[in-house]
Amino acid sequence: MEKQVSVAKHEKSILPGFRNKINQAESTEDVKKFFTYTIRELLVRIFEDDTYQDYDAIELSPNAAPYYKIRKDVTPPDEFSALWNNSDVQRVIADLAETAIHRYRHLEKKPEKTTTKIRN
Q: What is the superkingdom listed in this entry's lineage (predicted)?
């Protein structure tokens, strides 16, 4: 049995900023952007390198659970799969995606708020 690794300290460091950004998001595109930036920041902190700086590597996927996609071609296979299978990183990303999806759906139901923002 392999040792279980926790990324909770990284989660705690990004969570307040993430919640603040998501709550201030005024459009569904803002939500997607903030989610992507936050997950990139999380992965950079965990791996302590800039492998995940490619903006298109991570995206919010609002149409189906688990509500996010991470491109396989930008993940170091051994290092990433070891972390993925032996830590709580899946749960952390899923929780952040769930939070983002709630805000996304709220804004999607009220597009007039987005339109007002764009006009001003």
A: Bacteria
Distance CA 117, CA 53 (A): 29
Taking alpha carbons only, the member of 11, 15, 22 closest to residue 106 is 22
Question: Does residue 75 belong to any structural domain of this protein?
Answer: yes
The H or E element that residue 68 is part of is strand 68-70
DSSP 86: S
Range of the domain at 72: 8-113
Instruction: Express each pLDDT in 59-82 by its tens digit.
Output: 899 888 889 988 776 666 677 778
Give yes or no for a contact between 101 and 62, defined as CB atoms under 8 angstroms apart.
yes
Q: What are phi and psi of 69, to 5 degrees?
A: -135, 140
pTM, entire model:
0.82
Q: Is residue 118 part of a domain?
A: no
* Residue of 65, 81, 67, 5 whose CA lies nearest to 36: 67
Count of domains in the chain?
A: 1
Please indicate, yes or no, if residue 120 is contained in any of the structural domains. no
